[in-house]
Amino acid sequence: MNLTLYGYQDHWIAVDCGMMIRQDLPEGPLQVPDTESLASLGICPEMLVITHGHEDHIGAVAWLWPKWRCPIIATPLAAGLLRAKFAERELETSSLQIIEVDEGFESGPFALRLLPLTHSIPESCSLLIVTPEYRVMHTGDWKLDPEPLIGEPTDPERYQALAPVDLVVGDSTNAPLPGHSRSEGEVARALEKTLAGCRGRVVVTCFASNLARILALGRAAARNGRRVTLLGRSMERMVRVARGLGYLEDFPPLVPVKDLGYLPPEEVMVIATGSQGEPRAALSRLANSRHPDFELAAGDTVIFSSKAIPGNELAIGKLHNALTRLGVGIMEEKQFPDLHASGHPAQEELRTFYGWLKPTRLLPVHGEYRHQLAHTQVAQSLGIEAPLIPVNGDVIRLDAQGLSVEKRLTLQERIIEHDKVRPLDSMDRRARARLGRHGSVSLALPLTLQEAGWVRIGRLMLDVSGTARLDEDSFAEWLDDTLAGLETTDIDTVKQQLNSRINRWLRNHLRHEPVLFLHVMTMGDS
C-alpha cells in the first residue's frame, strides 16, 4: 500500500498512502495501512508527498489524513483526484492544504524535489530527498517509455546531474524480467489493429488510471468507426479530472450508455473498469447480466488490456467463466501480449537508470519477496550495495555504517467497514470461519411497495463466491413468491424476515450455509 515515512532529526514526512482491495473477503473491502503504532514512536508526518495518482498510492489518503492534518504535496492531476476523493467522503476540510508543485520544496531539514519519471499515468514523479548528510532517491512507480503518448519521455540528463546518490528506494515489480518493458505507443498500435479485426460490440477493460491507454483506445475506436462509452465511476472520474487539466484533448465524444442500444454492434466500443474481477465493477455486472442499460451477447468481444495482479487470479477466472457462458470472445495478455504494457521497469531499464544515478545502496520495495530478491541481484551485479530486503513494519536506519533494521513493528490488517477504519479482527470470527468453509452469497435487492405488496425491481443482483453456483432462475422465482407473501410494510421487519428465509433456502439447496450479505434498498412507492 506504499506508505513510506522518512525521518531526520525528529522531523518526518510521509510519501504516498495507498490502499488495496481485499477480494478474498466478502464484498471486497478496502484495506489501508496500519498507522496506529506511529504515535508510540513519536512519529507524526508534517508533510505528505504524493508521487502519482494511482489508487495504491493515494487511495487511503482521505481515510488517514484526518489523523495527521498535514499539508499534501502533489502534481495537478494527483491533486485533482485527491480533491475529488475528499469531496466524495464529505470530510471537513477547512484545514486541508493540497499544494501543487512543479519541482522543488522544503519540509524542516528536508530539501525535496519531484522529478518527472514515466509510468502508466501522467505526472508520475520520483522524489529526491536531501538532508545535510544524505541524498535519497525514492523512485515511486516508473519505467523508461520512449513513447508514453501523454507527456514527455524521461530526460536522462536530469538524473545524470544528480549522481551519485547515497540510496535508491526502488520499484521491484518487474525486476525478475529481462529486457525492456513495452511502450504505450506499441500497445496503441496493437489495439488499433486488433479492434479492426473484431466483429460485434467490443468492451476493453483496463485500469481506470491508465490515461495513456484510455487515450489510445479512444483514438483506435475513432479510426475504426466505433463510438466510445465509459463504464465505471472511477474511470469516469479519472477522465473528467484529466480533461479539466487539458489531457485527452483529441479523445472522441462520449456516447451515454443508455444510447448504446440504438447503435449497430460494429459501431460500439465500451471502455470498462473491472479488469481484476472486482465483483462490483462494471465488467462483472456486464458478465453477470446485471447492468441496467447494456447487455453483452454472443459474438461480442472483451479485451483485457491489463495484467492480473497477484492474488486476483481466482476472481478473474470467475469473470472469464461468466463471459464465456454468454458466448463472448476473450482476448487477454497471455495469448495477446501486445495488448498491454507494464508500468514498471524490467532489468535493462533498472541498469540504465542506475547508470544515470550511480547509487551507493539500494533498498528494494514495491513487490513481493521474489521481486525484491531479483532487484537485489541486479543491483549487486552493478556494484551497488543491497544489504537487506525490507518487509512491512521495518524501521530502517541509514547512517555511516550503511542500512540496518532497528526494529520491526507489528502491524494489523485494517479495513474500511461502515465508513470507518477498523481492525480486520473486528469481523465476527464465526462468520469468518464459516466464510472460509462455505463461501458467501451477496444479494443487493431493490424493492418497491405496491398495492399488492413488495416487488423486486430489475434483474437479480446476486454474487456467489467460494460455494456451489445457484440456480438463479429458481432462486429468483422463489424470492418473488416470498416477497409477495410478506405481510408487513415495515422495512426493518422485511429485512429480518428475508434474511432468515434466504438463509433457510440456501441451507436446503446447498446442504450448507454460506455467509449471506443482504442489502435491501427501498425505491419508494409506485
From TrEMBL:
EC id: 3.1.-.-
Annotated Metallo-beta-lactamase domain residues: 1-180
Xref: InterPro entries: Metallo-B-lactamas, RibonucZ/Hydroxyglut_hydro, RMMBL, RNase_J_2, RNase_J_b_CASP
SUPFAM superfamilies per the UniProt record, alphabetical: Metallo-hydrolase/oxidoreductase
Gene Ontology molecular function: any one: hydrolase activity
UniProt keyword annotations, A-Z: Exonuclease, Hydrolase, Metal-binding, Nuclease, RNA-binding, Zinc
Family annotation (Pfam families): Lactamase_B (PF00753), RMMBL (PF07521), RNase_J_b_CASP (PF22505)
Protein name: Ribonuclease J
